[in-house]
């Protein structure tokens, strides 16, 4: 689903490829078994519990011939017909285009907010320089991956933000997004597949920009920058 929501820049020049896998043969064995399962819930309407599958055609054929599908005439036939008409009429594509445009704008607004200097409204007005690094600016979707200075633990910083009522910001600490995390991992361990050090995620965080009004998104970005500055100065 997120692939669909990343599908365009504002100038409509970038469209990523989906990796659904293709059928190949190697000494009689079938290869290319990557399966992508997506949903219309987040690209059409929240109440639409219907989706689709991208997979090599031999996997799709197996699913189509499954007894559960054959005996019921398909899953959620009524909603399936609604989605079919939305696809056929272009309604779903129009909806998706609007979402892509909106999320791309939000990503750009949050990027600019986090990277610009933030003026503090105090008696002696000062300027806070952002210590936040955006590793790759998102083109859309829901989330942004950011990095704090290496000596900042995003988990500890989150607790600091939650303890301060004047900030009211939250995020997901990077450690919770670490697919290679183990209990006995050392900070200088390097994952063989990704080449990423074990301590990399500890200074990172995931921000969500999809569910806030633009004004709140800007305000939240500014508060995060200011909160980080105060945390570093402690």
Description:
There is one protein chain. The chain has 234 residues and is α+β, with helices and mostly antiparallel strands. It has seven helices and ten strands. The strands form four sheets. Strands 7-8-10-9 form a four-stranded antiparallel sheet. Strands 1-2 form a two-stranded antiparallel ribbon. A hairpin with a 2-residue loop joins strand 1 (24-26) and strand 2. The longest helix has 25 residues, at 91-115. The two termini are 41 Å apart. Residues 120-124 have low confidence and may be disordered.
Structural class: alpha+beta
- Helical content stands at 25-40%
Which outline best applies?
globular
Along the chain, the helix and strand elements come as: HEEEEHHHHEEEEHEEH
Q: Give the biggest beta sheet.
A: 4 strands, antiparallel
* Percent strand: 5-15%
Termini separation (Å)? 41 Å
Mean pLDDT score, rounded? Answer: 80
Number of beta-strand segments: 10
H/I helix tally = 7
> Order of strands across the widest beta sheet?
7-8-10-9
Outline the low-pLDDT stretches: 120-124
The gyration radius over C-alpha positions equals: 22 Å
